[in-house]
Design goal:
Helix content: 25-40%
Strand content: 15-25%
CATH class of one domain: Alpha Beta
Distance between the termini: 93 Å
Number of strands: 7
CATH topology of one domain: Nucleotidyltransferase, domain 5
Radius of gyration: 25 Å
CATH architecture of one domain: 2-Layer Sandwich
Strand order of the largest sheet: 4-3-2-5-6
Length: about 130
């Protein structure tokens, strides 16, 4: 009596779908990284002799030399920034916002933004560049 050997099942992996998934992931991360940039905002930060390294911001607000406000890379008004921050702060009173203001601006230009952020309940860290 002859003993039959079992046939090994052939294993076929669909590799074409793996390539599609890889390209979709590459495209996703390329787009997502562009959303995190501050865009084409030209900002000359003020200098200070003593600066401390701060933790990474959960949120950033910029005011460029034309007194335009940029919230997370998108142009916004001070009321939009205040509303968005109030929503984010919620019950977390330690919510940290990094604020960058162009050094050419005068106090009358940036004080409404500072007041709006203060009214939202968020804690502010003003950013700058170290002086030589």
């Amino acid at each position: 009596m002859a003993i039959r050997r079992r046939k090994k099942p052939s294993l076929v992996l669909p590799l074409s779908s793996m390539g599609d998934i890889a390209f979709l992931l590459i495209i996703f991360f390329m787009l997502a990284s562009n959303f995190m940039k501050t865009g084409n905002v030209e900002l000359e930060k003020p200098g200070a002799p003593q600066l401390e390294q701060q933790e990474a911001p959960k949120c950033s607000v910029l005011m460029d030399k034309d007194a335009l406000i940029w919230y997370e890379g998108a142009q916004s008004s001070k009321d939009e920034v205040m509303g968005a921050l109030k929503e984010l702060v919620g019950k977390n009173r330690d919510f940290l916002v990094h604020v960058s203001i162009d050094k050419e601006l005068k106090k009358k230009d940036f004080m409404p933004l500072i007041e709006a952020i203060s009214e939202s309940g968020a804690k502010m860290v003003l950013t700058g560049e170290p002086e030589d």
